[in-house]
User: Which sequence fits this backbone?
């Protein structure tokens, strides 16, 4: 049985473009124009992944994301225009998995859907206990990080930060989520902690910290651990 | 006339009384002292003398009292039979009567003379005040100054209290002094009414004579600026009212002049803004139309002629559509960002950011257009954090690198450096050197160095400079040694770096 994708998008051209390119890739595609239509579809025929556009005619996507997160762990990918930055972060914090900025290419959309499906939503994220890319190997169970067979020494905070990214490998983790999970909810405004610790982590992990291969920056949003 | 006879109050009445008693005592004592040495006529002259002195130094009524008193005292002390009010001879009666008439006439004449002098003095003062007001008004440029000046002038000319109120665009009144202090309802009604009727109201004007205040309009019908209220006035003070009208006319004219010039400035600014906007639109429509034409051309060619095109040609057209469309997206993004940045008064949303991270994210995005890795970056360790909007700074850097990739085929150096006060990022290319006389022009929206024959990111550099300046930094260009250009933007480094995280 093919995987089901729910595309929530009010622009007809983009909706039909996504529908046809996802259908070609073997997905079964449902489309919704409004939030109410989307939540009805979610109720009657739960999809495997949701692609949600911001700026829908009947309201805020946050409510939909919260509704999905109450009882479902399916991946949600946000599609936004650049000026919707703040709203996008809000949705990611509310539990959306990833985002794409318009205009985007179909290849990018497919790649994000693949990553999201591999994780099957946030509820299963804890199952990820190790991560490997190129010569970097991270094992959360034994708390070891190796590069080229050599063990890297991380401080506990550096390791916790890295571990949080490993659990969501391939997906963007917002500043707020990182600060809450690593330092605690009272530190959500201390973004400079992230700058300092990410700098230290990159200095230890990356071959060229100025052009990172693993610890990618999503400008103004958060960080992402590269999976490919 | 309230000018020459101020209302007799307690102290001045008492002072007049003392003066009369003093003068009469003086004349009587003097006459008694020289009694038997001089004739009755000379004694009478002494009394007439004090009457004259009294007439000069006292207001009308006390001076008349003084004159009558002098005649009575002279009669009592010197006219036989002495120390009675009786008059013995007919001759003395005639003399006394004549003396009374002379004394009264002197009092009256002196009083009139004095009042005329005072009036002339007051008129001169008012003329001077009007002149000074005109000079001062010529140098005022704000409504507040005019209000203040008008209030000062009125307070100097009239005992008041005086009120000066201006009409706001919404029809309400605003005043230099607080309107709340006076009998507010009546005052406001009076001011509104005099503006509505465009006429002076109050005593002596034939309109609302029952009031004890004048209401004068500022300005003429159709260009009413406000109104003035002068309280505690009398109907007889015609010169005073005329003066008030003259002051109000001057104030009204100045206010009108000011309003006209403000309106003119606004119109000028508006037309300038529209001019800038239309230049902007003309330029942007060019930058949008060219790639749009390419997209539409390639797409329609694929739509109608696909069967006749070889797969290679189809690929070329498709690639062109993707390339032109992404260029369109960049131009749109830049335009929106520039408009937003230059039109907003809101401060930037900033956070502590690492330049190393921003460089990394920009490079990650740009490598797609840089398959040969022409951009060589040099970012030192341990850079200070900056307070910045990361999205904007990333866009600045991306635009600079995009331009460098477009205009040069050789390697491009990206160098970050810092001293204590600033963080500098330089993008160095080996493209055609921009002539020094174009250093200003290339940062203007939609000017473009066309010599390369390449399409520029027209708006790109204007946006870059706007972003640098919005961060309190600067963007400049200079000639690179050995050919090419070096674009450098500098951002200020906050000396108060944030405290590190707990371990």
Assistant:
């Amino acid at each position: 049985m093919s995987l089901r994708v729910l595309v929530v998008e009010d622009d007809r051209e983009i909706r039909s473009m996504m529908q046809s390119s996802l259908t070609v890739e073997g997905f079964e595609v449902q489309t919704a124009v409004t939030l109410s239509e989307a939540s009805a579809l979610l109720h009657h025929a739960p999809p495997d992944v949701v692609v949600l556009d911001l700026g829908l005619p009947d309201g805020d996507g946050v409510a939909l994301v919260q509704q999905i997160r109450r009882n479902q762990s399916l991946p949600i990918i946000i599609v936004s225009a650049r000026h919707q930055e703040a709203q996008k972060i809000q949705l990611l914090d509310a539990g959306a998995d990833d985002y794409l900025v318009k205009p985007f290419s179909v290849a990018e959309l497919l790649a994000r859907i693949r990553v999201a499906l591999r994780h099957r939503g946030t509820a299963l994220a804890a199952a990820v206990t190790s991560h490997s890319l190129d010569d970097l190997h991270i094992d959360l169970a034994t708390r070891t990080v190796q590069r080229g067979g050599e063990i890297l020494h991380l401080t506990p905070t550096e390791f916790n930060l890295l571990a949080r990214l490993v659990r969501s490998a391939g997906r963007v983790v917002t500043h707020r989520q990182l600060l809450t999970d690593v330092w605690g909810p009272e530190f959500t405004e201390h973004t400079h902690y992230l700058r300092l610790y990410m700098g230290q982590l990159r200095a230890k992990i990356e071959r060229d910290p100025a052009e990172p291969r693993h610890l990618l920056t999503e400008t103004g949003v958060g960080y992402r651990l590269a999976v490919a | 006339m309230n000018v020459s006879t101020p209302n007799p109050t307690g102290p001045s009445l008492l002072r007049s009384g003392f003066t009369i008693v003093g003068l009469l005592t003086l004349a009587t004592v003097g006459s008694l002292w020289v009694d038997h040495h001089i004739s009755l006529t000379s004694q009478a002259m002494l009394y007439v003398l004090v009457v004259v002195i009294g007439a000069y130094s006292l207001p009308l009524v006390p001076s008349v009292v003084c004159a009558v008193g002098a005649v009575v005292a002279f009669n009592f002390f010197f006219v036989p039979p002495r120390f009675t009010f009786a008059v013995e001879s007919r001759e003395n009666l005639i003399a006394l009567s004549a003396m009374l008439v002379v004394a009264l006439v002197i009092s009256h004449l002196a009083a009139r003379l004095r009042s005329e002098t005072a009036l002339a003095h007051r008129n001169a003062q008012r003329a001077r005040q009007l002149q000074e007001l005109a000079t001062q008004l010529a140098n005022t440029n704000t409504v507040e100054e005019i209000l203040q000046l008008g209030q000062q002038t009125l307070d100097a000319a009239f005992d008041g209290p005086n009120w000066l109120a201006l009409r706001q665009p919404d029809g309400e009144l605003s005043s230099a002094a607080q309107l709340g202090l006076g009998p507010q309802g009546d005052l406001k009604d009076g001011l509104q009414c005099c503006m509505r009727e465009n006429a002076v109201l109050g005593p002596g004007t034939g309109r609302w004579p029952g009031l004890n205040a004048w209401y004068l309009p500022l300005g003429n019908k159709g260009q009413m600026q406000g109104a003035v209220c002068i309280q505690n006035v009398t109907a007889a003070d015609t010169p005073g009212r005329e003066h008030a009208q003259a002051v109000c006319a001057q104030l009204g004219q100045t206010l009108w002049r000011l309003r006209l010039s403000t309106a003119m400035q606004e119109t000028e600014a508006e037309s300038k803004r529209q001019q800038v906007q239309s230049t902007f639109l003309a330029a942007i429509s060019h930058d949008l139309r060219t790639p749009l034409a390419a997209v539409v051309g390639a797409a329609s060619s694929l739509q109608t002629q696909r069967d006749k095109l070889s797969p290679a040609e189809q690929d070329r057209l498709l690639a062109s559509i993707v390339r032109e469309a992404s260029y369109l997206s960049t131009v749109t993004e830049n335009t929106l960002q520039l408009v937003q940045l230059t039109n907003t008064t809101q401060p930037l949303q900033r956070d502590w950011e690492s330049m190393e991270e921003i460089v990394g994210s920009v490079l990650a995005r740009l490598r797609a257009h840089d398959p040969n890795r022409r951009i060589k970056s040099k970012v030192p360790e341990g850079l200070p954090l900056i307070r910045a909007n990361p999205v904007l700074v990333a866009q600045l850097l991306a635009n600079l690198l995009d331009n460098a990739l477009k205009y040069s085929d050789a390697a491009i150096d990206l160098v970050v450096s810092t001293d204590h006060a600033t963080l500098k990022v330089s993008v160095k290319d080996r493209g055609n050197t921009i002539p020094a006389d174009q250093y200003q022009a290339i940062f203007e929206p939609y000017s473009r160095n066309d010599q390369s024959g390449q399409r520029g990111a027209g708006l790109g550099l204007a946006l870059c400079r706007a972003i640098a300046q919005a961060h309190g930094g600067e963007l400049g260009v200079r000639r690179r040694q050995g050919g090419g250009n070096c674009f450098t933007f500098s951002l200020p480094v906050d000396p108060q770096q944030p405290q590190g995280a707990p371990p």
